[in-house]
Amino acid sequence: MVNWVEAQKPILHWLVRGAGLRQQTIEIEPGTVISMWVPKEKVMANKKKATNKEVVPDLSSDGSRDEEEDKRKKKKKQRGKEKEKPAVVLVHGFAAEGIVTWQFQFGVLVNQYEVYIPDLFFFGESTTAAADRSPAFQAECLAAALDKLSVRRCTAVGFSYGGMVAFKMAELRPDLVRSLVVSGSVFAMTDSISRATLDQLGFASSSELLMPESIKGLKALLSVSMHKKLWFPDFLYKDYLEVMFSNRKERAELLEGLVISNKDAKVPSLDQVCVQVSDFFHYLHYFKVNFLFTKNVGDISTHICINLYTKNIQSFAKPTSCMLPKCGIEEHDYSWCFHFHMMQRILLLWGENDNIFNLELAKDMKEQLGEKAILQSIKKAGHLLHVERPCAYNRHLKKFLALVKDEGTEE
Fold first, then answer.
1. Residue 139 is assigned to a structural domain of this protein
2. Residue 45: pLDDT above 70?
3. Distances, alpha carbon 136 to alpha carbons 164, 267, 312, 337, in Å
4. Rounded distance between C-alpha atoms, residue 386 and residue 232, angstroms
5. CA distances from 209 to 196, 218, 258, 393 (A)
6. What number is the average pLDDT over the span 68-78?
7. 118 is a domain residue
8. Is residue 354, in this structure, part of any structural domain at all?
9. Of the residues 39, 124, 215, 350, which has the maximum number of CB atoms within 10 A of its CB?
10. pLDDT at 319
11. Distance between CA 97 and CA 144 in Å, rounded?
12. Tens digit of pLDDT for each residue in 384-397?
């Protein structure tokens, strides 16, 4: 008998491929792989690297031909830089894998952004043999996968469970995550937040809420997740249960690894970017800071400190032109680390009728994050606001991404 939820997957894959994305499996370490939809150019670039062969130079070629070839390569490289788009990483929640969660978003983003849609571990084809089930481990491995794809900076867009992973990735890798968009989530799921949420919704455990085993349980989950009460025939609920709730044992472990003690909870530090000397000039240009360090970063007032580390001592130096690599300091004698004290922009985008993480919780998070965060809400939308009101969600998302893009545009 046809499973109608499974049957729509090839159509969704066709739409995603038509938008220029390709599914890629990235090995982080033996036994740990992440499946991710990435721009097709990234797949082609990786294949080209893998198949490149050594080219034997033609000794009969004259110097002018070599010069022409060098010019051609430089022009091609420059054109590639000009066409480079900002990266956006869409991190899914607990009820479905990546492209199912973001099926109404990827199409409006692919023309202006490099879109990456990963599956977290035990969703889709992503899996790990490691015992760690924490959001921090998910974040570390996702960042490692993006590194392998040569993603230098990105905006992480996280929903629910994916929002916690996105917060953690921004905290662990401030050099990678330039800005955040989070919906229906928290910094971390503490004992008190978990218990209060479950008591309010009338569920005994997170597994009962998020991993229903019956049609009745799935209807209850959708009821608390959406503002509008939608009707579907029971066979669709049954098909969804069969397709979307695999790896139950491992996902139950993810939920157990999600909850932390109240005493271990803290507001993530999201305002420092550290880069190595090899990336220094890239970031100077990227953030519109010139060599004399006289400009602000976008519309954010900031200052820049530079710590110079030698092999044996640590010293502080003022940011002057003598700090530039042309001053003759050799790489093998010195290790440079630049600390850019900057604010990562954060958009908290909420459904006004979110019953799982309500708007008051979002307001508290906004207060804790301070001026780096913006809180915007969407009327007549619940927890699944990006599915329930995709047009409104996409307008807010695109406006924020355009603001972040504008700040990083080359002068």
1. yes
2. no
3. 9, 15, 32, 24
4. 19
5. 13, 8, 14, 25
6. 64
7. yes
8. yes
9. 350
10. 39
11. 19
12. 999 999 999 999 99
Which tens digit of pLDDT belongs to each residue from 171-181?
999 999 999 99
What's the chain's average pLDDT? 80
Closest listed residue to residue 338, CA positions, set 407, 272, 404, 268: 272
Q: Are 387 and 105 in contact (CB under 8 A)?
A: no
**CA-closest candidate to residue 89, choices 182, 8, 208:** 182
**Mean pLDDT, residues 236-251 taken together:** 90
Which residues on adjacent β-strands are paired with residue 262?
Answer: none
Q: What stretch of H or E contains 125?
A: none
Q: Examine the domain organization and report whether 100 and 28 are in the same domain.
A: yes
> Helix/strand/coil (H, E, C) string of 299-322?
CECCEEEEEEEECCCEEEECCCHH
Q: Range of 316's domain? A: 272-341
Provide the 10 A C-beta neighbour count for residue 220: 17
User: How does 255-280 read in b/e, with b if 16+ C-beta sit within 10 Å?
Assistant: bebbebeeeeeeebebbebebeeeeb
Q: Are residues 348 and 306 in the same domain?
A: no
- 333 and 363: one domain? no
372 phi and psi angles, rounded to 5 deg: -70, -15
Total of domains in the chain: 2
Residue 291 pLDDT exceeds 60: no
- Which of 288, 322, 341 lies at the terminal end of a domain, its last residue? 341
The residue from 285, 313, 341 where one domain ends is 341
Helix, coil or strand: residue 174:
coil
Is 368 a domain residue? yes
